[in-house]
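Tokens in:
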């Protein structure tokens, strides 16, 4: 298990079962330059670890919408990742969950990526979904 933490984002990678978990600080605005830097770091770690499973926990987002820079970074990077499954943990902000889900799902569909995405209640549900998907 490899852990990485800064004041705005925490990442934990487990080689077995190849899961990268990411969690952002509640006070981090989605529209901030700092959030964009955490997205850059996230994609770097996904590539370095060859992570197939990603758990996203946005906590209680402090507002904002995904910026054009962030969406462009996703467009340029997600097709070149080893990701197979992305589990988003439900947050208290339905609009944020929906916004992030729609952006990622649109990329998956448009680029015909072999990635599945689900919104799940908690980390336990994410891990269960990952193991069921891997067996299918």
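Residues out:
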């Amino acid at each position: 298990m490899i852990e990485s933490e800064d004041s705005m984002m925490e990442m934990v990678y487990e080689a077995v079962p190849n899961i990268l978990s990411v969690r952002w600080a509640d006070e981090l605005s989605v529209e901030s330059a700092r959030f964009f830097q955490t997205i850059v770091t996230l994609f770097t770690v996904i590539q370095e670890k060859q992570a197939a499973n990603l758990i996203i926990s946005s906590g209680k987002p402090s507002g904002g919408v995904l910026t054009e820079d962030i969406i462009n970074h996703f467009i340029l990077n997600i097709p070149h990742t080893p990701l197979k499954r992305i589990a988003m943990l439900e947050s208290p902000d339905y609009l944020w969950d929906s916004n992030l889900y729609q952006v990622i799902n649109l990329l998956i569909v448009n680029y015909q990526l072999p990635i599945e995405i689900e919104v799940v209640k908690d980390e336990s549900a994410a891990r269960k979904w990952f193991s069921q998907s891997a067996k299918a």
